[in-house]
Amino acid sequence: MKKLIAILLMASLALVALAEAPSLSPSSPDGLRQGGTLGEARNAPAIAGDPRDVKREVRNYPEQPPVIPHVIRDYQVDKRFNRCLDCHSREAAPSAGAPMVSVTHFMDRNFQVRAEVTPGRYFCTQCHVPQTDAEALVETDFKPIDQVIREGDRGENQ
Amino acid sequence: MMDRLKYYWSLLRKPSVHYSLGFLTLGGFLAGIIFWGGFNTALEATNTEQFCVGCHEMYSNPYQELKGTIHYSNRSGVRAECSDCHVPHDWTHKIGRKMEASKEVWGWLFGSINTPEKFEAKRLELARREWHRLKANDSLECRNCHEFDSMDFTLQDPRAAEAHSTALTDDSDETCIDCHKGIAHELPDMAEVNR
Questions:
Q1: What is the value of pTM for the model shown?
Q2: Dist. CA A40–CA A26, nearest whole Å
Q3: Contact A80 B183 (CB under 8 A)
Q4: How far apart are CA A47 and CA A42, in angstroms?
Q5: Residues B28-80: pLDDT tens digits?
Q6: Cβ-contact B84, B27 below 8 angstroms
Q7: Which residues, in sequence order, are CB contacts of A105 under 8 Å at separation 6+?
Q8: Which of A47, A133, B4, B59 has its CA 20 to 30 A from that of B135?
Q9: Is the CB of A81 less than 8 angstroms away from the CB of B69?
Q10: Can you tell me the distance from the alpha carbon of A35 to that of A29, in angstroms, rounded to the nearest whole number?
């Protein structure tokens, strides 16, 4: 009897082991690229399209850094030159037909307005990004401020 | 020394004694073809990307900046390589530019831009030279591909269309490089540059 139990136990263990062993590579943690194993190289998702036809977008809330409604490929922004400010600077904006960077960009850390864009606000793409047709990478329940106000007025979600 | 020169001069002036006229004319003709072909082949060889980035100065500075720009890699797979923008395509100007390039051989021999720091220090000077050259020849190398007559202004955005239809006409002295600086390499410190 004992022998039989032992054999049955070993057989079931072997079955479990066989069922569990289709791949020797452990599965990778589910990050932004779902599925796959550690040993397997999965294709990167396609690069989101050019925002070539995008018009200026309404901001979702007042302090939102406006998104960039044009292609910024190869734009040089470093200590030698800032291609964005080539059109969006105070002097260039009217002739370029581009919106001037807002006055907050001229404030130093003591809220003193200076003549030039302050170094802390110099690197445009730290806050401003081009609008593309990319899907959101993670699920989000973000609502624009107008929607929040409307729902608040109607007494929803309170 | 003088005697020897005189001897060669008289030798050249004397009619040929041993070779027939046919041999000399045909031989000269064939040798001419070979030399001219060889010259042009060598000239073309110095016009390739492979030749340009053969030196580490060109490979590790301007070439790395060119990679990733629209002129190097793009949807349609047309590439403008070094010589397309930096060497004129027609013969006379090409030979002129090639003679100028002997200065670049000098720079290579003495390593005038052989470190990133030296290149950075000379960036403005080198950029100014190219801007000046393109301004002087009415952006000839741009226009080898980007023809004004082939531009459809209705497909450009309004500001570009406005600029192109006024600035590029014959009565304006504006040219491509006036606005399109730094499209294939990084710009130098532009603080001192009038744009």
A1: 0.75
A2: 10
A3: no
A4: 15
A5: 999 999 999 999 999 999 999 999 999 999 999 999 999 989 999 988 999 99
A6: no
A7: A117, A118, A121
A8: B59
A9: no
A10: 8
